[in-house]
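== Folding the chain ==

***
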Amino acid sequence: MITLGLTGSIGMGKSTVAAMFVDEGVPVFDADAAVHQLQGPGGVIVPAIEQAFPGTTGPNGVDRAALGAAVFGDDAAMKRLEAIVHPAVGAARAAFVAAHQDAPIIVFDVPLLFETGGDRGVDKVVVVSASAEVQRARVLARPGQSPERLAAILARQLPDAEKQTRADFVIATDVPIDQTRDAVRAVIACLLAGTGG
C-alpha cells in the first residue's frame, strides 16, 4: 500500500482534487470531515471540548463559531484544542487504514500536513496549488471570510512555494478542470508504476 498525503493552503482546490482521487477509485481519508464527525452531535470529543472551552457546545455538538472565537488568535488555546482533536483524528485514521488495507493507494487529505509533521507519516506528498490571485478570490467568495481572516489563516500555514518544493507532486487547479483531472490520473499511474516522484 502506498500512502499519499494530499495538502494545500486554503482556497487552493484541495477538496476538488480529493474528489477526483475518489472518482478514480482511490480511498481518501478526509481529516476535516473526521473532525466534523468527532465534533458533531454525539461526537466523542464534544465533552472534552466543552470542559476545555465552556459554552462552545450544544445539542448539535460543537458550535464552530463559538469555538473559533474561543481559540482564534490564541496560540495556547489552539494547542489545548489540538491536544483534544489530534489523538481522536489519529484513531479515526487508523480505523480507515484498517478498513482499506487491500487498496494499492490510499490518500490522507490533511490541510496542515507539513505544519503538523504529517508528511513524515506518508510515502509521497501531493500539493494542490493555484495562483495567489485565484486563491484569494476563492476564499473571499466564501461566507464569513474577510481579508483579515484569510491573512490570519495563511500566517498559520507554510507558504505555497515552500509546500511545492517539499512535494513529490504538484497539481494545479487554476487551469481547465480536465487538466487537473489528468494530473490526478498521472499521479496515480506514476505511483502504481513504482516511479512516484
